[in-house]
Amino acid sequence: MASRITGALPSNPSAQVQAVIDWMFAMCEGDWDKLESVLTEDFEATILPKSLNFPVRNKAAWIQYNKDAFPIFTDFKFHIVEIVEGVNAVAVHGCSNATTSTGHPYRNEYSLFLHLTRQSDGRYRLKQEKEFIDSQYIVEFFSAEKKRQEAAGNTVYW
Predict the structure, then answer these.
(1) Which CATH architecture has domain 2-151?
(2) Neighbouring C-beta atoms of residue 116, cutoff 10 Å
(3) Where does the chain have alpha helices with state H?
(4) I want to staple 57 with a disulfide (CB 3.0 to 4.6 A). Which of 9, 61, 64, 88 is the partner?
(5) Is the Cβ–Cβ distance between 59 and 39 less than 8 Å?
(6) For the chain, domain boundaries
């Protein structure tokens, strides 16, 4: 599992950072039950910049969005460039690396701003995600990939 996340992984992460690492593993592995367990019931995810017109998604919608989008990737990996921790917040600069089922590379850069809440057992769960992505790359990649997926006879939900 650790090979899916590389880079600046702390050897002894705080409880907040551990929650973020758990979230990253769930995303990279497509473990939707684990993803559900690391998000608060009132979780909200926003993909930015706003010019991309992605809706704010609640917990259920965010999990479903990822369930629909991730199957096109055969080997999703995330490289952490930097993690910055604050009070009930963690910021991550990172990059993804994957190959699609049509054989095309996917490389994106992210700035993630994650707000967390401490649970009664001392663990943290993610309450809010603000995900800044490489907007030009995303528009170009997914437009082309949608055509490739449809040409391959695959149903596309995005």
Answers:
(1) Roll (3.10)
(2) 25
(3) 15-29, 32-38, 59-69, 135-151
(4) 61
(5) yes
(6) 2-151
